[in-house]
Structure prediction request, 313 residues.
Amino acid sequence: MRIRRTLTYLVFASCIVVFVVKNRAAEVRGGDWTISKSDEPGKVEFSLIEHRHGGVSSHESDWSMSSFQGVDFSKAGRQDVHFTITRDAGKIECEGFLKDGEGAGIFHFQPDASYPKQMESLGFPLDEEKQFAMAVQDVSLDFAKQIKGEHLTDLDTDKLVAFRIFRVDSAFIEAIRAEGLKISDSDKLVAFRIHGVTPQMIRSLHQAGYNPDEDMLIAMRIHGATPEWMDQIKKRGYDHVDLEKLIAFRIHGVSPEFIEKVQSLGYAHPDPDELIAMRIHNVTPEYISDMRGRGIKNLSIEQLVSMKIQGID
Prediction:
């Protein structure tokens, strides 16, 4: 048995299988597997590694223990194991050992001969490499049919695999659309999942009087302009600030705490653009207090920003 490896998770076409011809017979390629404990209850970290053409292709993710039929993860000590992961795309035959719920072994992939034709009939052509990736990610024929029925743009085989990886399914798409966002862009749906755009977030923004498009929602999540953070800004007197300016708040560090400190110095309600300018040019509450200590008082925010620009410290 090989020493357990530290693996890199690959999104597309990871853990692929190829065929080599030897003595006119096709030999199914395989590789190694490892199982280690996961932080998630009821799951294990399952890795598949294939060595090919001088390189290594790998897949690693958390799998439910129930995926490994016949394996007793609660059993103490060493045990020999043999299990089969059966998917529409084919079977992954694994054998090896476990010790106290962790272990390693070898695997071979047996592709389903009818799967490529069935997938191609749905508009998802694939090669041998993609077929193994689709087996690993459990891209079933039913899943492909459901996603095909959502009438999305730019949908292809790779994106179908990405949908499975990032949990973009019909329920998620319909929940997003139920909030009034008529999304059909495949890439943006994946981005929603990656960055955490949820139906609840969209609902909260609509209730607050905003109507963001897909790009704005993604940008808000990337920069942390969440409804929860917006509520904190609102408590400081900034209700229904333009979403682009709220994103600028996050980019430049206009935090609820910063606003509070500025207000405590007598600036009751600076314009959002003024707050952004203060952060860009490093006009801090400490700088204002220092100027006042030198006898320079009653300056407007515009004057303070101008002094900083001119290098007056």
Remarks:
- Residues 172 and 235 are 32 Å apart (CA to CA).
- The first strand starts at residue 19 and ends at 22.
